[in-house]
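Changelog note: in this version the structure field was regenerated for every chain. One regenerated record is shown below for reference.
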Amino acid sequence: MARYVYECLQMDQQTGTCTQAAFVPRTDIPDLTPAQVTGMLSLVLTAFALAWAYRQLGRTIRS
């Protein structure tokens, strides 16, 4: 699936305004597979779980 961004194609140097703009395909954003998305979500959830566990451990030690 192609991603598009609204981009200025021609700029007027005198006024600093965009004279021609259009939606163009983005090539610097790679398409992600479902496995890659799942992997990234797993990494984020693991980080949150570790932070929560560390906080709980601190509460247990202080109690």
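Spot check on this record: The helical segments are 34-62. Residues 34-62 form the longest helix (29 residues).
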